[in-house]
Amino acid sequence: MIVVVFIVIFALEKTFQQNLFIVMYEKIQETASWLKAKMVTHPTTAIILGTGLGRLAEEIQVEQAIDYKDIPNFPVSTVEGHSGKFIFGKLGGVDIIAMKGRFHYYEGYSMKEVTFPVRVLYELGIKTLFVSNAAGGMNPGFKIGDLMVITDHINFFPEHPLRGKNYPTGPRFPDMHETYDPSLIKLAGQIAREKKIRLQYGVYVGVQGPTFETPAEYRMYRTLGGDTVGMSTVPEVIVAHHCGIRTFGISVVTDLGGFDNPVEVSHEEVQEAADKAQPIMTEIMREMIVRSEKLEHSKNERYNTDHPTEEWKSQS
Ligand code: HPA
Question: Which atom of ligand 1 sits closest to the CA of residue 207?
Answer without folding.
Answer: 2
